[in-house]
Amino acid sequence: RRTILLGAAAGALAAPFIRPRAAMAAEFNYKIANNQPLEHPSNIRLAEAVKAILDETGGAVDIQIFPSNQLGADTDVLGQLRSGGVEFFQLSPIILSTLVPNASINGVGFAFPDYDTVWAAMDGDLGAYERGQIENAGLVVMEKIWDNGFRQTTSSSKPIVTPADYEGFKIRVPVSPLWTSLFTAFGAAPASINFAEVYTALQTGIVDGQENPLAIMKVAKMWEVQKYLSMTNHMWDGFWLLGNRRAWQALPENHQEVVARHFNEGAMNQRKDVMELNASLRSDLESEGFVFNDVDPKPFEDKLREQGFYAEWKKTYGDEAWAILEAAVGRSL
Ligand code: X2X
């Protein structure tokens, strides 16, 4: 059995996910990294998937999970994925846009009204479009995207009720031009900070707020450093499961099939887990101390339009991509 080195503190360095070792040395020892704590459904389903892959390949493909940014901040791990230092990586398409510009198109502000529309789009033409862009950039991507969720806004000082509440608001955003642009359009002061540093940034007051889906608020214990949780639902975000192309091509076809099948099954199960969690997360987070408020998205979308946000991003993504987005959400933006 592997030595257990699980660090108690978030950010513990290179602590491997605990899992019994294959009876025989594996032919392919691969790593998969992500930014989420072990308790997040992503890592629970990933643990199942890598175990099934190990079993079904007769011990040939042994993939170790490195959660919680143990291999580095997201933008660093993206570099490791490209060089082959890490073989697999789960990453938000919006952060991935630092390498694949049009991958972030699902993150356009207020584009998606609900999850049904999200899954039809991401399992349909919009997802296929993003995967095509990702493959053109030299990376491998699994077919099914994992859920991060609809993003909500937290603050240490005040609830966000109207767009004016964002004015001058110091908010952490993940590293991506789309996020910076969105909050700049609201007159906020966005700071690009990798997830690995968010808790500390909030604790030390470098920023007043941040935005994330409820499941992340829970596993990252955001109530310890934030007070108000405003249901802004300003974008939907997921995690593509990416692969290094050389590492992928080194796998025989029958192993590729097993790996892809279990990763995609993991995504489908993780979506259900997050959905079930969503039903209880609000009351759960309220009992942890968060003060919730609901938000009417209409004035926020109007403000973005007035600021030229949609026109600017239509130009950036191009007419073809924009048409796929509008078809996916069933309206013009
Ligand atoms: O960095 C974030 O806020 C997170 C966890 O939601 C993403 O991966 C985009």
TrEMBL record:
Q: Entry's CDD domains?
A: PBP2_TRAP_Siap_TeaA_like
Where is it chiefly localized? periplasm
Instruction: Report any one BP term from Gene Ontology.
Output: transmembrane transport
Subcellular location(s): the record lists: Periplasm
Question: Which UniProt keywords are listed?
Answer: Periplasm, Signal, Transport
Q: Mind telling me which GO cellular component terms the entry cites?
A: outer membrane-bounded periplasmic space
InterPro entries in the record: DctP_fam, TAT_signal, TRAP_DctP, TRAP_DctP_sf
The record, for NCBIfam families, names:
dctP (TIGR00787), TRAP_S1 (NF037995)
Q: What is this protein called?
A: TRAP transporter substrate-binding protein
Q: Which organism is it from?
A: Paracoccus caeni
